[in-house]
Each structure stands twice: as C-alpha cells, then as structure tokens.
Amino acid sequence: MISRNTLDTAKETAxxxxxxxxxxxxxxxxxxxxxxxxxxxxxDLLTSTQAGGLLGVTGQTIKNWVRxxxxxxYRVGGRIMVPRDAIEEYVRRAGGSLxxxxxxxxxxxxxxxEGRTGGSEKVGSA
Length: 126
Fold this sequence. Notes:
Blueprint: H1 4-19, H2 23-39, E1 45-47, H3 48-55, H4 59-68, E2 74-76, E3 79-83, H5 84-97, H6 105-117
C-alpha cells in the first residue's frame, strides 16, 4: 500500500512538472495518484466519546449501538471506533424516520408553556 506521504510527494512532483511545461509526465503521475487514491481506505474514525458528542449521547450509548448493530463501528485494540460516514448515515436514517409536522409559532409557544407547567395550564388561561 502506498503511504499518504508518498502520494503527497507525487502530487507535488506533478505540480512542479506542470509548472515546467511537462504536461505529459504530470498527467501520468496524476493518473497514478488517482489509481492509488482509490485503494486507500477512509480512516476518518471517531472514538465512541467523539461520536456520542456529535449525536448528543454518551460514549457508552455509542458502544451499545455498535454492539447491537444500530451503528457501524470497529474494535481497535480496546476501543470502539466509528467511521464519520457511519454517523452521517445514522443521522440521515434517523431524520428520515421522523414524521414531524411543522408547528406554527403559536403551537410551539403552547407546547413550550405546557412543558413548563407540566401540561396543567393552557396558554392564555387565567
């Protein structure tokens, strides 16, 4: 597998070759960079605590979700790691499963007031 450092060096070499007018050689290197880049796995991983912070839950909840299969994740040593794209997919799925109707400002105000009073009072009642 080609290291990220090698790819960065190749990109810089291609830039330099283009600057020097060697377009053919630069294109060849860029083609190799593209091919090598397709082989590199995405390593944008979050710890369970970081993932929990993004979703507003605890790290333990993330670990539970990974164990249950609700969220994709990996055990790396003693840690549960979650790919960032798995978090994005979870948010898309969760958002798509919510069937919320839009509330008017008045309805939102009433719900807030009910929540503050425990639902025992309606807005505008004396």
